Amino acid sequence: MSKPDHSIDPRIRESAKKEFLAYGFEKASLKAICENAKITTGALYKRYKGKEDLFCSVVADTVADLNGVVEQRCAVDVNDLSDDALMKAWDMDEEAMLWWFQFLYARRDNFVLLIKCADGTEYSNFQHDWVEKMTVKSYEYFCEAQKRGLTYVNVSMEEMHILLSAFWTTIYEPFIHHYAWEQMEAHCKLVCDLFNWQRVLGFGLPT
């Protein structure tokens, strides 16, 4: 029994990525994807159920990488953290923030697909869903700090989601507007100056 030929798969995904970036998922043409990949539509359907399956295949590695970061950070038991570590988790450290921009910039095409071009796919609400994932663990950190008396303010889960939505919007937008890396570096400094989580969440202030 002959083995399936996967040699053209990278060519299909590259053609699909360019088409999705140019037109978004809903307006992208499977016919154009096939023509640019120099394959027949029959060859495409042997590999993918349809346009959404192809889109999901294109972004799969990036989604897995992002989920891996979330899983790694969620594995931390906040009960084991020192008071100092809980407070420092909210520092707008430029080096740590730059790590995020580097991580996303290395995957920028697929990240843009997820945040800008995914309407009509299972990732239509990616921006909201990603913030929701970040909110769950962030709120756990905050509640632990509050329990220990490290902060005097009350912030609901919903408010935390709103704050993090604003924060992540400042990260999404440079990718949507096709910033070069030098612009990303400068923007990273602005984001660090803009968000003073220690002050907003009341760390180190008297009750």
From TrEMBL:
InterPro entries attached to this UniProt entry: Homeodomain-like_sf, HTH-type_TetR-like_transc_reg, HTH_TetR
GO molecular function ontology, one term from the record: DNA binding
Coiled coil residues, start to end: none
Keyword Cytoplasm recorded: no
Gene Ontology biological process terms, A to Z: regulation of DNA-templated transcription
Lineage: Bacteria, Bacillati, Bacillota, Clostridia, Lachnospirales
PANTHER family from the UniProt entry: HTH-TYPE TRANSCRIPTIONAL REPRESSOR SCO4008 (PTHR30328:SF54), TRANSCRIPTIONAL REPRESSOR (PTHR30328)
Species: Anaerotignum neopropionicum
Name of the molecule in the record: Bacterial regulatory protein, tetR family
A family per Pfam: TetR_N
Domain HTH tetR-type: 6-66
Keywords associated with the record: DNA-binding
